[in-house]
Amino acid sequence: MANENVKSTITKKDVAKRTAKLVGEKIYLTEKVVDGVFQALREFMSEANPEVRIEIRDFGVFEVKKTKPKPKARNPKTGEIIYVPARRKTHFKAGKLLKEVLKQPLVEESQSN
User: Most exposed residue of 25, 38, 60, 77, measured as fewest CB within 10 angstroms of its CB?
Assistant: First the structure.
């Protein structure tokens, strides 16, 4: 019961270690490749003018989308009506294979005890 809301954090180093294991390479080599992939994705997304779609087959789609301006937003602290300009936001949509895995029912600990 205590582990219901436990969230684990996976770092870039963890991704590099798993990649090294999967492809049979040394960790220091895969760290460079993983870092390069994330750097390239970051550059594609930051260069979006104003929108971009990065499709990675069998994984998912990263998108940079434009938001609409909000001329009548409210500051929750002061109640003051403020203008929020249009900006860009990121969005990830899981691919078919990932969706299928995530749709599997969770195994409850109480059932296994």
Answer: 77
Cβ density class 60-86: b for 16+ within 10 Å, e for less: bebbbeeeeeeeeeeeeeeeeeeeeee
> Residues near 82 by Cβ (< 8 Å), separated by ≥ 6?
73, 74, 75
Pairing of strands 81-84, 70-74: antiparallel
Residue 70 contacts residue 84 (beta carbons within 8 Å): yes
Helix (H) or strand (E) holding 19: helix 12-23
Residues 53, 60: Cα–Cα separation, whole Å: 10
pTM above 0.85, yes or no: no
pLDDT tens for each residue of 6-65: 889 999 999 999 999 999 999 999 999 999 999 999 999 999 888 999 999 989 999 999
Q: What are phi and psi of 22, to 5 degrees?
A: -65, -40
